[in-house]
Amino acid sequence: MLKVNGTRRNGYLESDDAIVTWCVGHLVTMSYPEQYDMKYKRWSFDTLPFLPDEFKYEVIGDVKGQFETVKRLLTRDDVGTIYICTDSGREGEYIYRLVDRMAGVKGKERRRVWIDSQTEEEILRGIREAKDWSAYDNLSAAAYLRAQEDYLMGINFSRALTLRYGNTVGSLLKRDRTVMSVGRVMTCVLGMVVRREREIRAFVKTPFYRVTGTFSKNGIPFQTEWKAVEGSRYFGSPKLYKENGFKDRADAEALIAMLSAPEPTEAEVLRTEKKKEVRNAPLLYNLAEIQNDCSKRFHISPDETLKIIQDLYEKKLVTYPRTDARVLSSAVAKEIGRNIGGLRGLPEIGPLAEEVLSGDAWKKIGKSRYTNDSQITDHYAIIPTGQGQSALRSLKPLEQKVYEMICRRFLSIFYPAAVFEKRQIELQAGSEHFFASFRFCVEEGWQRAAGIKKNNGTEASSGKNTGSADGGPEGNAGNADGSQEDMSGGRADDPAFREMAASLRKGSRVAAEGYAVKEGETSPPKRYTSGSMILAMENAGQLIEDEELRSQIKGSGIGTSATRAEILKKLFTIRYLQLNQKTQVITPTQFGEMVFEAVNVSMKQLLNPELTASWEKGLTYVSNGDITPEEYMVKLRGFVARRTEQVQRGNAGYLLKEAYERTKDYYKAAPARRERGTGRKYEKRRTDG
User: Fold this and answer.
1) Does domain 287-412 have CATH number 1.10.290.10?
2) How far is Cα 472 from Cα 526, in angstroms, rounded to an integer?
3) Whole-number mean pLDDT of the chain?
């Protein structure tokens, strides 16, 4: 596509007028403390806090050969202009800036290529419109600060906690060596998981007993649920668990005995209500949303999902994956016909694309809620490019499914809203009242493109799930708060059932077929899954109680779309958390819980999303030019120094012992395991995005 018809050499391509070379991920990294002075190799409070005036960097040993190749090419006398084509984001900017710095590039024009997909048109546009790299200096400053922040927190806090509490934790868990790794983001995620686990342990289930009634009209039965509304003999009774259940089964059975004496007869319809519900297609996928959906649908981790979408991106099938946006840019909306048109030849998806192009909705998408430049920072939502179709044959089955998900979500936004009819009915049998709620799909709309069954009306992801639960009851007949779910029993598509429901009007008489007790119990908060955790990290502001701070960090979250999956993976690797591969449910390990406790008694702020998200917001301020890198660094150095000294002064080992005694019974006994490696190797895990 670049028409570089040159010779392939070791680590680059070269023609008469152009050279193409590449990084293999990071080529340069921050140096370990002992590179500043050998005294720092030994972990000691005497050398903390470690706050160098200038940071040192070094070439990563495993990729030194490629670095030397890139360096030689960047500094060649016949190279006048450098086009920087690393990933269009903060991390991609950081990768090149470090290489440029270590290579000592001088006297060259550097132009930044910023693209959203790897199609030929997009790459050529990016090169044609490439800006001088100085336009991204603020982004570069934020990238450097992010890495320096993680480095300083990781080095200082990991060493301080290990020195202060490592022996205590090691003794309690019978570990020969205990190094406690701490990070700006990963420690906060650990805190979220451990706190959720403790909420579940503390939860006391409450049983309750609902009464359901089966009624029929014209021989067609339907289910209802009893509620103790005004007029009921149980209205306001202390025997109730909320208004639609009893605390004791005997009371529920007594109600049924009263209703059935001498036998069930009939009931009268007191009230009916019909409402129209219009539901638009959900917003497009960003990385967090599709990671959550893939976790639920395919039971794969966020890291696996990112790898799949990255592969689709490199095959030119989808746009840039590491995005937080769920909308299109106005520029992309103007050219969206190309993306749709390229899908016409695909099985199953093709007819949907043809149908979209035959209408006008795609021409107006730029004025809809699916296009919003103000909601885009670096990249717009993940959508199919409409190109790269030749690569489809080489995709694995799971990759094909993920690609189809992206295509269906994309095409859905060009379809009309799904329309539902909701009917609510109130019946009276004697002095007692029963309620039913039915939901019928009137117009399928976008649900057909999304591959959703008619009366479901919801995709796998709502965009609001943060893994929390309200401790409400389980069951399908209704909720303990009195709200009603669809009670058609799966017959919403049956014309006879719909006709019967429509015939239920005020004053109608229905036959009482019988009553039953339905037992339920309140449920504890749900554990995080790998997918819901990614969304929780993205929406960390929702976990913050302080309203002012919550509004300040709206849209920030914990980590970035590019790093969240890797942070989770690291927590599994260092055995702070464990992942059930089948269900994708996350739970803490005993070691992880003890690390949580050590942080909790020494620098509690690291466990809370307020701190992590506020630092991320600060980096955004640097990227936008609202504050200077120097201002940010002054605050960072002060924070690290104060917290490190706070750990050094602490002496809360007895609290760790108490926590161990409280929690040890929740973990199965495991044989002692010798930790391998030195402190240096553990420090390699310190940065967490």
Assistant:
1) yes
2) 11
3) 89
**pLDDT score recorded for residue 119:** 83
Residues 6+ apart with CB under 8 A from 291: 302, 305, 306, 530, 531, 534, 564, 565
CA 515/CA 267 separation, integer angstroms:
12
| Domain over 207-278+419-521 is classified CATH 3.40.50.300 | no
Q: What angle do CA 335, 328, 320 make, to 5 degrees?
A: 90
Dihedrals phi, psi of 421, to nearest 5 degrees: -110, 125
**Angle CA(448)–CA(454)–CA(460) in degrees, nearest 5?**
75
The whole-number pLDDT of residue 109 equals: 97
Residues 6+ apart with CB under 8 A from 100: 74, 110
Helix extents (H) in 75-136? 90-103, 120-128
Both tokens assigned to 236 = 């306001």
pTM of the model: 0.86
Task: Give the Cα separation of 664 and 661 in Å (integer).
Answer: 6
Residue 134: DSSP 8-state: G
Q: Where are the domains of the chain?
A: 7-129, 143-198+527-683, 207-278+419-521, 287-412
- The answer, yes or no, to whether residue 181 has pLDDT greater than 50, is yes
Structure tokens at 506: 């005020």
Taking the CA atoms of 389, 391, 396 and 399 in sequence, report the sign of the dihedral they define: negative
Query: What is d(CA 70, CA 21) in angstroms, rounded to the nearest whole number?
Result: 7
Domain 143-198+527-683 and domain 287-412, same fold? Reply is no
List, for residues 434-472, the tens digit of each pLDDT value.
999 999 999 999 999 999 876 554 443 333 333 333 333
Strands 266-279 and 509-521, by their bridges, are: antiparallel
Q: Between 3.40.50.2000, 3.30.390.30, 3.40.50.140, 3.30.2290.10, what CATH number should domain 7-129 receive?
A: 3.40.50.140
CATH superfamily placement of domain 143-198+527-683: Topoisomerase I, domain 2 (1.10.460.10)
411: nearest Cα among 323, 498, 343: 343
- Judge whether 92 and 22 are in contact, CB under 8 Å: no
CA-CA distance, 329 to 374, in Å (whole number)? 9
Instruction: Please tell me whether the peptide bond between 302 and the residue prior to it is cis, using omega within 30 degrees of 0.
Output: no
Segment 496-501 shows an average pLDDT of 94
Question: In angstroms, how far is CA 394 from the centroid of its own chain?
Answer: 28
DSSP assignment, residue 2? -
Cβ atoms of 525 and 196 within 8 Å: the answer is: yes
